[in-house]
Specification:
With 196 residues, the chain is an alpha+beta fold. It is built from 7 helices and 4 strands, in the order H-H-H-H-H-E-E-E-E-H-H. Strands 1-2-3-4 form a 4-stranded antiparallel sheet. The longest helix is centred in the N-terminal third of the chain and has 37 residues. It is elongated.
């Protein structure tokens, strides 16, 4: 629905704050690594990389600390009015997850830049390709959409031994007996999600 789309757009924009820092630090890391290796000063690599990693975390932390410390306040600037509680809650939860993601990104950007600066561009490519593939698979599983025998479509939001909870629109969730879903999904679909 519109609320989910708005949360998604806002989260992507928030992630771009970290991207700016990580891209700049990544460029610096590549230059420093290639220069130190070229000058035969490998002993200086570890202290230089430690400082650059700290710089990356400080920059990302400065720009994104609100995601963790005051997400409700940030979300309140984008969701207001009597029917905005679901958007506020979704945005607050999403910002907490985004904070963890950007911290991981700060470290991985430095790691990739080290490989590239050391001349291992092919290895860096495979690391990035593997990361993107894993991201796509996780995103697919998290947004698994099913069709019910009644014709209703929705996203699986919870599963237990007997029931499936289906998100259909703007925070509205419906609970179904799992036996009915197993009958219409391709065999093994729920096993691939890791629930059986």
């Amino acid at each position: 629905g519109m609320m989910e789309l708005k949360v998604s757009h806002l989260t992507r924009n928030a992630f771009m704050l970290a991207f700016v820092v990580c891209t700049g630090v990544g460029q610096t890391v590549r230059t420093v690594v290639s220069n130190l290796i070229g000058e035969g000063r490998q002993q200086d690599l570890q202290p230089a990389l430690r400082r650059l990693l700290i710089l990356s975390y400080l920059g990302v932390g400065f720009l994104t600390h609100g995601y963790l410390l005051y997400p409700d306040w940030i979300a309140s600037h984008f969701f207001s009015g009597p029917s905005s509680e679901a958007g506020l809650n979704a945005m607050s939860d999403t910002l907490g997850t985004a904070f963890v993601a950007v911290q991981l990104y700060a470290a991985s950007a430095v790691a990739i830049a080290v490989l590239q600066g050391a001349g291992f561009t092919k290895h860096a490519f495979w690391v990035e390709l593997t990361s993107v593939t894993a991201y796509i698979l996780v995103a697919y599983v998290m947004t698994l959409v099913v069709a019910m025998s009644s014709g209703m479509l929705g996203k699986v939001t919870a599963l237990d031994e007997n029931y499936l909870t289906l998100g259909v629109s703007g925070g509205l969730e419906l609970k179904f007996q799992r036996i009915h879903v197993n009958a219409i999904l391709p065999k093994g679909t729920l096993k691939s999600v890791g629930t059986e």
